Amino acid sequence: MKSCPKCQSNMIIDIVYGFPSEELAEDANNNRVQLGGCCVGGNDSKFKCKSCGKEFGGSDDNSYDWVR
Ligand SMILES: [Zn+2]
Which residues lie near ion ligand 1 (Cβ < 5 Å)? Predict the structure, then answer.
């Protein structure tokens, strides 16, 4: 189970990059995923905490090897 590195909440959602499909847009509206936008940068977080808003799991985040 994933948990937030900041507040230990397990209400973690995926951050999805790229143009969202209709299904994905609906998931975003229901707060099941976070849309990361179309532009993918060098250090994109993969998860977001719904409790505190912390984004984590980016490529330079060594404490989260399990995302790879
Ligand atoms: Zn949190």
Answer: 4, 6-7, 9, 49, 51-52, 54
